[in-house]
Amino acid sequence: MANTENTENTEKAANTAGAAAEAAGAVLGDVLLFHNTMRVLDGHLAEFRAAIERAVAFVQGRGPQLMVEVFIDEPRMLAHSFQLYADSDAVRAHWRMSDPYIRGVMEHCEIHDFTVYGDPDPGLREALAEQGLPIVPRFTGFLRHSPGASPQGRSEG
């Protein structure tokens, strides 16, 4: 009997937490994660950093991304950009508004690898396939966001 009560209590708690997470928008069914690995061109690190700063500042204020993080591995001259989108429409909105900033970054690097994680809609899937980008389907996961938390832009260098 105790095991049954514990199981029921655990299930109730999980259902309550799941409902709260879903209400907070933490369910990731349509979410897309882009991982772009860029090789920074020799002698372009400072300009690359400045272009990335401009691009990230722009999308932080106006873009549809839920998250953008950029990491630079200076010894290998590789940069990793992770961008999280709510859905395929958010990706298309980003493409429409960010082209000048993307071109500014691309003057200082070349794409080394680019992988899309998630399940884009058929139209976006076709556009990504035309670019030869691999798409890794989502299996499971969640997004935890503290209530009232406000992600802050930060720059270190």
Give the arrangement of secondary structure elements.
Blueprint: H1 2-23, E1 32-40, H2 45-62, E2 67-73, E3 78-85, H3 88-106, E4 109-118, H4 122-130, E5 135-136
Parallel strand pairs: 4-5
Antiparallel strand pairs: 1-3, 1-4, 2-3
Helix pairs in contact: 2-3
Report on this model:
The structure is a single chain. The protein has 157 residues and is α+β, with helices and mostly antiparallel strands. It has 4 helices and 5 strands; from the N terminus they run αβαββαβαβ. The chain has helices at 2-23, 45-62, 88-106, 122-130; strands at 32-40, 67-73, 78-85, 109-118, 135-136. It has a 5-stranded mixed beta sheet. Strand 4, helix 4 and strand 5 form a beta-alpha-beta unit. The longest helix has 22 residues, at 2-23. It is globular. The model is unreliable at 9-27 (pLDDT under 50).
Gap between N and C termini:
59 Å
Q: Describe the strand arrangement of the main beta sheet, using strand numbers.
A: 2-3-1-4-5
- Taking pLDDT < 50 over at least 5 consecutive residues as the criterion, the unreliable ranges are 9-27
The fraction of residues in strands falls at: 15-25%
Our count of helices gives 4
Short description:
With 157 residues, this protein is of the alpha+beta class. The chain is 43% helix and 23% strand.
Which short descriptors sum up this protein?
157 residues, alpha+beta, 43% helix, 23% strand
